Amino acid sequence: MKIKIWGCRGSIPVPDRRMIKFGGNTTCVEVDFGNRVLIIDAGTGIRRLGEELNRRKQTGIDMIITHSHWDHIQGMPFFLPMYSKNTVINIAGCTGSYKNLKDILAGQMSSEYFPVSFADLHAKISFGDICNSVTDIAGHTVRTIKTNHPMATYGVRVEGEKSVFVFITDNELNAKEPVTTFDEFVEFCKGADLLIHDAQFTDEEYTKRQGWGHSTFNKTFELGMRSNVKQLGFFHHDPSREDKELDIIEKQFRKLGKQKGSKMKVFAVKEMSEFKLG
Fold first, then answer.
1. Rounded CA gap, 145 and 154, in Å?
2. How many CB atoms lie within 10 A of CB 160?
3. CA-to-CA distance for 16 and 241, rounded, in angstroms?
4. Which of 78, 129, 153, 216 lies at a 20 to 30 A Cα distance from 177?
5. Rg of the chain's alpha carbons, rounded to an integer?
6. SS3 sequence, 100-147?
7. Domain at 2-276, CATH from 3.40.190.150, 3.60.15.10, 3.40.640.10, 3.40.50.1370
8. Residues 97, 100, 105, 111, CA torsion sign
9. 13 touches 274 (CB < 8 A)
10. Is 92 helix (H, G, I), strand (E, B) or coil?
11. Alpha-carbon distance 182 to 195, whole Å?
């Protein structure tokens, strides 16, 4: 499978020259299986991905929405494949406890916010459920896990015959009253070829942001080490986090990994970066 990052910024897009290296678009990740594509989240990065999928003439698309906070769905109205009658899109999420996912996505395209209504889209769009589920997409097993966030949010594990990709955004590993324990996350991430995980705060920042539903670099690093993953990517960059800061943090944790004798590759995720697994 091939992984491509179309957006890795948290909270709000930042068109800022201080964030050019790591990118300013909000969450959107593509998992390419060759004959089918899985998209995780529809932040502003999905606009550019949609243009690319149109160029490829990709008509079969699966999509997982981890949760419906604004930075994870705000790019959806600009996703060009939705406007083609040749496209079939299966969208899965877990928001039924408070509001139907279809209603949420349609709501942001109501006339108060957008000139085209959800009902006028030409693609064949269906909705499914990923609440603590196991499903198959293009011969790959897709599992989910509930994260520690102020609203229902799910991490994703994609298992192929030769590789495993785990993506967990918006997750507070240090949560005082966790829905999912740290040990459960270790088990979920165990042996992954690539783990991309929320790391929005430094330890110092976190003291003032406990309960916000996001993790620190240190705790995410610990998760990678305990899970014995091959590659660990820090994700969901704070909107005020500049490139120069992420460069320093990346070097710091690479050095720490070497000191601990780990072979795990550690990096801050960059927009448009690509990974080939298996």
1. 5
2. 17
3. 11
4. 129
5. 18
6. CHHHHHHHCCCCCCCCCCHHHCCCEEEEEECCCCEEEECCEEEEEEEC
7. 3.60.15.10
8. negative
9. no
10. strand
11. 15
Q: What is the mean pLDDT of residues 71-81?
A: 98
Q: What is the pLDDT of residue 98?
A: 59
- Those residues whose C-beta lies under 8 Å from the C-beta of residue 125, and which sit 6 or more positions away, are 82, 89, 91
Mean pLDDT of 48-72: 97
Cβ within 8 Å of residue 146, ≥6 positions away: 132, 152, 153, 154, 155, 179, 180
Better-predicted residue by pLDDT, 130 or 228:
228
Q: How far apart are CA 214 and CA 241, in angstroms?
A: 14
Sort residue 69 into left (φ over 0), alpha (ψ -120 to 50) or beta: beta
Band of residue 94 on the pLDDT scale cut at 50, 70, 90: confident
Q: pLDDT by residue (tens digit) across 209-225? A: 999 999 999 999 999 99
Instruction: With H, G, I as helix, E, B as strand and everything else as coil, classify residue 234.
Output: strand
Buried b (16+ CB within 10 A) or exposed e, 218-242: bbbbebbbebebbbbbbbbbbbebb
Sign (positive/negative) of CA torsion 262, 235, 204, 24?
positive
Percent of the chain with pLDDT over 70: 99
Q: Give yes or no for a contact between 160 and 278, defined as CB atoms under 8 angstroms apart.
A: yes
What value does the mean pLDDT take over residues 196-201?
Answer: 98
The pLDDT value recorded for residue 97 is 56
Q: Which pLDDT belongs to residue 96?
A: 61
